[in-house]
Amino acid sequence: MERLQKVIAQSGAASRRKAEQLIAAGRVKLNGQTVTVLGTKVSASDEITIDGIPIDKEELVYFLLYKPTGVISSVKDDRNRTTVVDFFKQVPQRLFPVGRLDYDTSGAILLTNDGTLANKLMHPSFEIDKTYIARVSPVPTAEQLRLLVSGVLLEDGMTAKAKVQMVTSDREKGSASVRLTIHEGRNRQVRRMFSALDITVKKLKRERYGFLSLDGLHPGDGRPLKPHEIKTLYHLVNTKQQPL
Description:
By secondary structure, the protein is α+β, with helices and mostly antiparallel strands. The chain is 22% helix and 30% strand. The chain folds into 3 domains: 2-54, RNA-binding S4 domain (Structural Genomics Hypothetical 15.5 Kd Protein In mrcA-pckA Intergenic Region, Chain A, Roll), CATH 3.10.290; 62-125 and 211-239, Pseudouridine synthase I, catalytic domain, N-terminal subdomain (Alpha-Beta Plaits, 2-Layer Sandwich), CATH 3.30.70.580; 129-209, Alpha-L RNA-binding motif (Alpha-Beta Plaits, 2-Layer Sandwich), CATH 3.30.70. It has helices at residues 4-11, 16-24, 115-122, 142-150, 189-195, 227-239; strands spanning 2-3, 28-30, 33-34, 41-42, 48-50, 53-54, 62-67, 96-97, 106-112, 130-137, 153-154, 157-158, 163-170, 175-182, 200-209, 212-213, 222-224. Strands 7, 8, 9, 10, 13, 14, 15, 16 and 17 form a 9-stranded mixed beta sheet that branches. A 4-stranded antiparallel beta sheet has the order 3-2-5-6. The chain has a two-stranded antiparallel sheet with strand order 1-4. Helix 1 crosses helix 2. The relative contact order is 0.15.
């Protein structure tokens, strides 16, 4: 069961806010009866009309995108910059990104029109792992790596524990690659965690979102999720557990 205004928005007939206005104005009928109560629950078998015209219920779709750098994680941009939605112009459904990746960060990001799943994935209580590979300078010390694992104090509070692995290091050039797995989603969190330790992130890519990787994708490539992947995502948020 879904809320009436959400189903209308998913159909593409109106935005969520406009749908609420239509309901309040008495222009929406559910199985032939006028509905004015926001949040009314509807099922897939219910007939919904706006001004007597049936809505087309939108099929739920799910995509994984390898976001390039220089792309906005938004539906639209007031400066006309490329957004993640622009890579799916052939998709008739109204997509929106699950969370965000910074403009100068590349990597895995999900897009869907399934608001129920998206909201759960973005909520910190569900602790979905996100794994990043960061090219940094200078080479972190063992103590700095330990601090990343245990938590770093930022201006908006202490970060949760993280998983950290030194991938490569070049002390002559003063640079290293570090793999970092976190489940929080604060703004520019990975960059700020390193910055708090006087380490600069030169390049950042999100390699994995939960169990989903970028295998077989290049920057700008996207693919639909497989049925078992969608089922696994729902399993993650319903059990609050990560697959091994």
